[in-house]
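Pilot study result, target chain (347 residues):
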Amino acid sequence: MKMNRLLLMLAVSLAVPTALPAAPPAADGPSVLVKTELPRRQTLAETITAYGSVVPDTGAIETLSLSRPVRIDHLLVAPGQVVNPGEGLIELATDPAAAAAYRQAEAAAAFARGELQRVQGMAGRHLATRSQVAAAQKGLEDAEALLAAEQRQGTGLGSEILKAPFRAVVATIGVQQGDRVPGGTALMQLARAGALRVTLGIEPEDVGRVRIDMPVDLVPVFGSTKPVRAKVAKVFGIINPQTRLVDISVRMISPVGELMPGMQVRGSVLLRSRNGWVVPRSAVLRDDRGAYLFQVQDGRARRVEVSPGIENGPLVLVAGPVDPARQVVIQGNYELKDGMAVREGRP
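Predicted structure:
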């Protein structure tokens, strides 16, 4: 009986195939190849870039003129030339007619002075009345007043060299050699050296964002000098028909350096600046729930809701629960969903 039972068990074991080894557990799912970097905290500035030119400050331009008519003998400078105090600008002479008027006034004053002395002598001998003395006195006063007016106008001067009153740049010259010009004619305009302003053109849609006293950094378009610090002085309200842009006037608040009238410059207008978490623009995604980015936690992508702020070039400032110790996915994030496995590399 026992033998039959052993034979039966042997037959069953031969009939059932031997079990295979257990298969390894299935993987959790596919992983995404991504590139990451740590977020950094810094100040990011929002700016507008504008282009324009340097011109003399209108408040620092002085027009030179003379009250008497003159003849222009020689021009000693040219437009754009830098002149120092006392340096000659124009050699000129009083117009002959004006010089004759001075001589007439001088002769009239001399005659009136002699006439008063004569009448006073006659009055001492009782040959002239007080009213005659008073009339002679009045005649002298009128003649001397006329002579003084001619002297103030400088008609008694012959040749003269008009000199620079301060260090300046010759902005314009309104006369030519040989001209005979009446009194009050603008002979020349001088712009005080270093007194400059800049006119920049901005897009019409940006006008509402620019305010008086906003900081501006200026650099020549052609050159690599240290920026000149400036501030917005005026914001105009019309479109410049030549540039199709809106002009803003900028005043310098630091030494002008290499800037000079006529130079083309690039200006960077600082609209605002904020400090916060800064990530590459490519790290921020958007869907119907809003803006977000992915940070890596234990080899998996975790969605973090953020609010984008200032953008500057390839960088954007974000507000939200960003963990500074976790890598931010900056490439490959379009393939991710919350909780997906990631692996480092260059996508």
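One observation from the pilot: Residues 70-94+157-192 form a domain with the OB fold (Dihydrolipoamide Acetyltransferase, E2P) fold (CATH 2.40.50.100). A full batch analysis is planned for the follow-on phase.
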